[in-house]
């Protein structure tokens, strides 16, 4: 345990594996608490910053070297979480102790990216402790211990690791949009946005499909937040969201469930997708123009009824 803070990154998975393999039920919480304090993932992000600066240089040798550093760093972090995943799956004491160690952390500043990733890992890997992991995550969000910035750092700096937990991320995001606490709802919407921004096309399609389902559900609260998420995505990731415009377009079949403000948001989203590349006569453009015309006619009729 004393060498964990200073051990080289490439040796860390072996050291952590040894510690987790030898932990006993009697001291599991104490050992895991010390381990999470000494594991610093921020040092694993440093090579990515080096690459950012190296990209500005024209030296091919330097760029290749920094790229190699990133690959090595990411592989080591992946191996580290593979070790933790095996321990959580097959050692009941480790899974429960890790949840307890995070739960016992009271100071807001003491919470780490590691804590969020481990909770997602447990939720994804250990069915017996899934509810407990979600309960602790909800509690930490309500208390302000898991700010959205921490979550964004986790997704952006360790997307290779978190991608493996996408099914759990999707389930949690969907569940959080039903929550009563605004911080949990906001966290769920941010999970959707981060998953769309950093994951592959399969995950992006699943995110859009889930958001469309929220909008078509008829539930006022989740409908509004889902439209807001789609609005943010169409502003920040227009070209990416355009690939899934056909999914978004299906919301037009459920406009009877939307109020005028929500319809305006929907038309803004669809109009941005339809006209951002100025493809005259596109199918989506025609659908949007036709639906806006019909909606305007309906509003006119209602006003004069």
TrEMBL record:
Q: What's the main place this protein lives?
A: nucleus
Gene Ontology biological-process annotations:
double-strand break repair involved in meiotic recombination; homologous chromosome pairing at meiosis; interstrand cross-link repair; mitotic intra-S DNA damage checkpoint signaling
**What is the name attached to this protein's record?**
FA complementation group D2
Q: Where in the cell is it found?
A: Nucleus
InterPro entries given in the database record: FANCD2 (IPR029448)
Instruction: Please provide, in alphabetical order, the Gene Ontology terms of the cellular component aspect for this entry.
Output: condensed chromosome; nucleus
Tell me a Gene Ontology molecular-function term this record carries: DNA polymerase binding
The reply to whether Protease figures as a keyword in the UniProt entry is: no
Query: Would you say which domain of life the source belongs to?
Result: Eukaryota
Pfam families membership: FancD2
Cite the PANTHER family for this sequence.
FANCONI ANEMIA GROUP D2 PROTEIN (PTHR32086:SF0)
Presence of keyword Ubl conjugation: yes
The species this protein belongs to is Anas platyrhynchos platyrhynchos (Northern mallard)
Q: Which UniProt keywords apply?
A: Isopeptide bond, Nucleus, Ubl conjugation
Protein family per UniProt: Belongs to the Fanconi anemia protein FANCD2 family.
Q: Which residues cross the membrane?
A: none
Organism ancestry:
Eukaryota, Metazoa, Chordata, Craniata, Vertebrata
